[in-house]
Amino acid sequence: MPVFVYKAADQRGKTIAGVMEAPDQRAVVERLHREEYYPIEVAAQAERAGLWRQLTARGVGNRDLVAFTQQLATLFEAGLPLDRALSVLEELAPSPRLKAVVGDLLKSVRGGASFADALAKHHPHPFSRLYVNMVRAGEKGGVLEVTLRRVAEFLEASQDLREAIRSALIYPIILLVAMGGAITFLLTFVIPRFAEIFADLGQALPLPTQIVLGVSSTLRDYWWALAGGAAAAALGARLLVATPEGRLKWDRATLRLPFVGDVIRKAEVARFCRTLGTLLRSGVPVLGALAVVKEIVSNRVLALAVERLVAAVKRGAGLSGPMGESGAFPPLALHMVRVGEETGRLEETLLKVAEAFEVEVRNQVKRFLTLLEPSIIVLMAVLVGFIVVAIAMAIFSISEIPS
User: What are 286-325's pLDDT values in tens digits?
Assistant: First the structure.
């Protein structure tokens, strides 16, 4: 009998993993459902890490995923059955990789698997636990088309925030690269020509000129040591962050930074609120929703705070109290969540909190970059000016020497 590897979550959101002998994948899913587990991933042991599936799934971009979800919701609303809708989307797929994923989904659905179970085979690329759990809740509630529309709205909002920040960073990055290239060119190609002239004259040089010549010489003669040191520092930092303790220290330090920490905290809280609100609005239980949210929060400090929320909710507490006790959430989020709990409109309040923080993150990043761009230009002007003045001082000092 075939052996299947599975991952599932219980009603409290706890994730389990194991193996099971069964005639087919559907039998595994049915048995897990009977035991009151929500299957996340079920695959034959021999194909669990199928190379082609992993490669194709990883190549599906977020834009393609948003378009796929929106189109699928539209086809559902038009009354098409699931297999017919997937067949249409397979033909309309804009890339071979998405076409392969949709084709695999269609094959699984026609083989008797539920849509959520078919999606779980491609977890976590490109379908996250959020995506799979929302679809599963929509299938159970008979509102799959509404759920798909909500998933598409969530993905689109997340994509808009990422693209807004990414677009705002393009110009400052170009300025930094241009400044670094200009300074490096001056120090490695221009300054050495003057160094040879000054060395032939054998005269004492002003201090600024000595500094520039020293930096130029170090950069030319020991560039390999500087590059190696930078690579070693980057590797060391990466290895440190790869450990749970190191990642926690790093995330705690970033949250304490004057400006960056506030932006990171608000962006993470916005993601937490949008994900939790979307899951709750789609009918996912609170504990299951928090289990999903815990995995998508990238900052370990906030992830630990979410773990404490899970423990508090299991004890029967609400959200606002434990959120305040954790000290990881801004006051606005705490007050809004408390109001949502009191009015019985928690999911709507969470989505409003997410929108508010997303707007604030965009505005803060925009203000910061508005100040950063002229600062980079001024810094570049100061550095180039210092180099030019240092060389000019040396030339003037030499020309003043009596012949």
Answer: 888 887 787 777 788 888 888 888 888 888 877 888 888 8
Nearest to 120 by CA among 48, 192, 14, 22: 48
Q: Which two tokens stand for residue 122?
A: 């491609």
pLDDT digits (tens, 9 = 90+) for 179-217: 888 888 888 888 888 888 888 777 778 888 888 888 888
Domain boundaries, the chain: 3-142, 143-403
User: Is the overall model pTM greater than 0.70, yes or no?
Assistant: no
Residue 32 token pair: 């897990």
Q: The domain 143-403: what is its CATH number?
A: 1.20.81.30
The domain at 3-142 falls in which architecture? Up-down Bundle (1.20)
Q: One fold for both 3-142 and 143-403?
A: yes
Burial of 88 (0-12, 13-18, 19+ CB in 10 A): middle
Query: Assign residue 296 a region: left if phi > 0, alpha if psi is -120 to 50, beta otherwise?
Result: alpha
CB 184 within 8 A of CB 219: yes
Q: Is 356 exposed, middle or buried (0-12, 13-18, 19+ CB in 10 A)?
A: middle
From 385, 400, 386, 381, select the one nearest 208 (Cα to Cα): 386
pLDDT in tens, 15-27: 666 666 677 777 8
- Mean pLDDT across the chain: 81
- Give, as one character, the DSSP assignment of residue 187: I
- For residue 215, give the amino acid letter: V
